[in-house]
Amino acid sequence: MRPRSVHRTTLDIWGNRRRIWSMHLKYTLNWDSRRRVAVTYSHLKCGTIDITVHEVLEGGALKELHKASGNDLGGQTVDKKFKEFLREIFSDSLWDEYEKEHPGELQKMMHDISVLKENDDDVEISCPYNLVEMAKEKQKMEKFFESLRGVSWNQGAIRISKEKVRSFFAESLNGITKCLREILKKDFTIKYILLLGGYAQSLILRQHITNQFGDQCKVLCPSHPQEAIMKGAVMFGRNPALVASRISAFTCGVSLSDRFDESKHRADKRYTNKEGEWCDDIFCVLVKENEEVGWDKTSEHSFTPVERDQTAIIFAFYRTERKIQGLMYVDEWGVENIGSIILESPDTARGMNREIKLEIKFGATEMTATAIDVDSGSTVNTELDFMAKSKRSIRNNVWQK
């Protein structure tokens, strides 16, 4: 019997990785999509580096071969090095005072630096008025630069040599190189490395990637790598089938109860109702980390209440990046609650034999869960909590036979 109403809730299992949609090669590059090739995509943002591997299928759709991975050594790492060098020039005390008194002026200065780092040349940074005035109260401007190499004062501007600028990139470039080498060691035949995002506008970065990996892969970058992210997202919104399948970044599951077995269950998880003894908070896997899921794939799970007169069913969803071997409960380390739903089940005539269906649809930027009370088809009340970081106490009232 089809229910008269169902409840649908969206659970974000992919985090902030929606930029992957920009990687559709028929948009970013004009090549023959009939060739089935593996491509490493490096999304190089201001804050983080995200690298993934896709196969270009016939027709131009993408098949993810490796989940997005990376580190936090993006363009902001370079900005941080610039700022540390400015602090070294003007001293900790002067710089701290300037940051506190003139945050707006500092923000503009850092914006100018983010633009300058796109080039591979000597750079001149206009020194803000208030920073100059504060520095002059200490000593002549030229004095701040006498003991430092690769920097000089040039009529109101801070001139930094190309070699010094390159040194600010070293930590970030080493982190990117390490991540790419780890992926290239895996069992993929990768022919192209495609650079995307705002940080990919840096000539120093592009030259480094080409020098390090140009003999293994062809390094490509769209003329507007940051714009490609936005346009790719729009393309995906209009046609989700552009990404034929994805690799799950997490192991996702739902919290269940099961008949208590003292030989395998923790004593503190035991609770009793009029139907017997149960074990609470069992992690039931819905999809495993690194599992391939099609964009329109749906899996169905069947559950029953733990009490014959129960009229509300709670499903609490969790995710983790830890290995699932040995993982049994949702309150163990590394397991995060990502949301919950409440399904009303007013028709209790069949008691614990009632069927409660949970349909899970994978493959887009989210995992979509649909809870259905087969017997009643009544209106479903919902309670969603996508932002919770702390563990909540939720007594499970559903089990899987």
UniProtKB/TrEMBL annotation:
<protein>
    <recommendedName>
        <fullName>Heat shock protein family A (Hsp70) member 12A.2</fullName>
    </recommendedName>
</protein>
<dbReference type="InterPro" id="IPR043129">
    <property type="entry name" value="ATPase_NBD"/>
</dbReference>
